[in-house]
C-alpha cells in the first residue's frame, strides 16, 4: 500500500483544545505555501501512484475554491489509481462548490471536525460552526454522492454529560455516518483550555465513558477496530497504514514520513517552509526503535499484532522475548492471544499506555 499525507496548516480560527500545527489563514500565505508544496514534491521527486492520499491540517477546507483547485491539480498525477482519497473539512467552510470540486478530482472520503452536536459545548471549545451547519453539510455530501464520511467527536468536554454523548451518537446513527473517530479530551501545553486550568476526565471516569461509548456504538452497528475508531462499511485504509507500521510519504509543514527505516520530519516553521527549507530532521531508526513502534501501533488495533508477522520481520521469538510483560497482562485480563494475534482486551484498551511502558522496559 502506497500512502501520502499532505498537511495544510491554515485555519480560520484556533480552537481552545487544539495543539496541531496550524496558522491563521491569509490568502497570500496560502498561495506561497502551495508554491512551496509544489517545490517539495519536485525536490523529493515524488511521482508514486498512491493507493491512499490524506489531506489533513489545520483545516484544508479553509483554502479558497481557487486554492483548493490548485492543490488538487498538483496532486492529480499522484492520484491516478487512488483507492481512498480523503480530506479533512470543517462544517463552516464546506459549501456546494467545494464539494463539486472534490468530486471533480476524485476525492471520495471526507472527515468532518464536528466534535459535538451541542451548540453550548461548541461555544466553550471555540468552534465556529453550529450543530445545524454540521448536519446540513453531512446531508449535502450525501446528496452529492459522497457516502464515505468520517465524523470526529470528543468526550470529556467542559460540562459535557453522558446524555450529551448519547444524543451525539443517536445523531450519528440518524445521519447514516459510515465512520467515527471519537477521542477523549487531552490538553497539551499552550492550548487555551490548558491555560484556563480545565481538568479533563480522570482515568477512572475516562474508562467509564469509554466503555459506555463502545457499548452504544456496538448497539447501532459500528465495528470497533482501533482505540478511537469505528466503522460500518470499511475502516480507513490510510490510517491502517500507520497502525500496521508501513512506510508512507508526508509533505507539507510539520509532516512526517516513514521510509526505508528512516523517519523524516518537516519543519513546523511556515517561514522556513515557504523558503524551501522543508526538512527538519532525518532519523535512522534502530531495530529496537522499529520493534517497539510496531508493538505500540499494533496494540492500538482491536485485532492486535500478528505474532508470525513480527517474528518474521524482526527475526525474534516475540512471545519469548516479551514473556514477562505478556504473561503479566494476560493474568490481569488485559492482553490475550487469539488465532496467533496478541491483542488488548476491552479492559486492556483503557490501560494501553501502561502496558506499552512495560513493553519498553522489557527491551532495556
Automatic annotation (TrEMBL):
> Mainly resides where?
cytoplasm
Picking any one GO biological process from the record gives:
porphyrin-containing compound biosynthetic process
Question: Is 4Fe-4S there in the keyword field?
Answer: yes
Q: Which GO terms describe its molecular function?
A: 4 iron, 4 sulfur cluster binding; coproporphyrinogen oxidase activity; metal ion binding
Query: Which residues are in the Radical SAM core domain?
Result: 1-223
Keywords tagged on the record: 4Fe-4S, Chaperone, Cytoplasm, Heme, Iron, Iron-sulfur, Metal-binding, S-adenosyl-L-methionine
Taken from the record, one Pfam family name reads Radical_SAM
Q: Tell me where it resides.
A: Cytoplasm
- Entry's Gene Ontology cellular component terms: cytoplasm
Does the keyword field hold Iron?
Answer: yes
**Protein purpose:** Probably acts as a heme chaperone, transferring heme to an unknown acceptor. Binds one molecule of heme per monomer, possibly covalently. Binds 1 [4Fe-4S] cluster. The cluster is coordinated with 3 cysteines and an exchangeable S-adenosyl-L-methionine.
Q: Which family does it belong to?
A: Belongs to the anaerobic coproporphyrinogen-III oxidase family. HemW subfamily.
Entry protein name: Heme chaperone HemW
Amino acid at each position: 500500500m502506497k500512502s501520502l499525507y499532505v498537511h495544510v496548516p491554515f485555519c480560520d480560527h484556533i480552537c481552545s483544545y487544539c495543539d496541531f500545527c496550524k496558522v491563521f489563514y491569509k490568502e497570500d500565505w496560502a498561495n506561497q505555501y502551495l508554491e512551496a508544496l509544489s517545490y517539495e514534491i519536485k525536490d523529493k521527486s515524488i511521482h508514486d501512484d498512491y493507493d491512499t492520499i490524506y489531506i489533513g491540517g489545520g483545516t484544508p477546507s479553509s483554502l479558497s475554491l481557487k486554492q483548493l483547485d490548485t492543490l488538487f491539480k498538483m496532486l492529480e498525477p499522484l492520484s491516478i489509481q487512488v483507492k481512498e482519497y480523503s480530506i479533512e473539512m470543517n462544517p463552516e467552510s464546506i459549501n456546494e462548490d467545494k464539494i463539486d470540486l472534490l468530486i471533480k478530482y476524485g476525492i471520495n472520503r471526507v472527515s468532518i471536525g464536528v466534535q459535538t452536536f451541542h451548540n453550548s459545548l461548541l461555544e466553550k471549545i471555540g468552534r465556529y460552526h453550529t450543530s445545524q451547519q454540521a448536519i446540513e453539510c453531512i446531508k449535502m455530501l450525501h446528496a452529492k454522492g459522497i457516502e464515505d464520511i468520517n465524523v470526529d467527536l470528543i468526550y470529556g468536554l467542559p460540562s459535557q454529560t453522558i446524555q450529551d454523548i448519547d444524543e451525539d451518537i443517536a445523531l450519528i446513527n440518524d445521519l447514516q455516518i459510515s465512520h467515527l473517530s471519537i477521542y477523549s479530551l487531552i490538553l497539551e501545553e499552550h492550548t487555551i483550555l490548558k491555560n484556563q486550568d480545565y481538568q479533563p476526565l480522570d482515568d477512572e471516569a475516562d474508562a467509564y465513558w469509554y466503555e459506555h461509548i463502545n457499548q452504544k456504538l456496538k448497539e447501532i452497528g459500528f465495528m470497533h477496530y482501533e482505540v478511537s475508531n469505528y466503522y460500518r462499511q470499511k475502516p480507513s485504509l490510510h490510517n491502517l497504514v500507520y497502525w500496521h507500521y508501513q512506510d508512507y510519504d508526508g509533505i507539507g509543514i510539520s509532516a512526517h514520513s516513514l521510509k526505508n527505516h528512516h523517519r523524516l520530519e518537516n519543519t513546523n516553521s511556515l517561514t522556513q517552509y515557504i523558503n524551501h527549507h522543508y526538512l527538519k530532521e532525518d532519523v535512522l531508526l534502530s531495530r529496537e526503535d522499529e520493534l517497539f513502534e510496531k508493538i505500540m501501533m499494533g496494540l492500538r488495533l482491536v485485532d492486535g499484532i500478528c505474532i508470525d508477522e513480527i517474528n518474521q520481520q524482526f527475526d525474534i521469538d516475540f512471545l519469548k522475548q516479551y514473556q514477562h510483560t505478556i504473561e503479566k497482562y494476560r493474568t490481569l485480563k488485559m492482553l490475550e492471544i487469539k488465532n496467533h494475534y496478541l491483542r488488548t482486551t476491552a479492559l486492556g484498551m483503557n490501560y494501553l499506555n501502561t502496558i506499552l511502558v512495560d513493553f519498553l522496559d522489557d527491551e532495556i
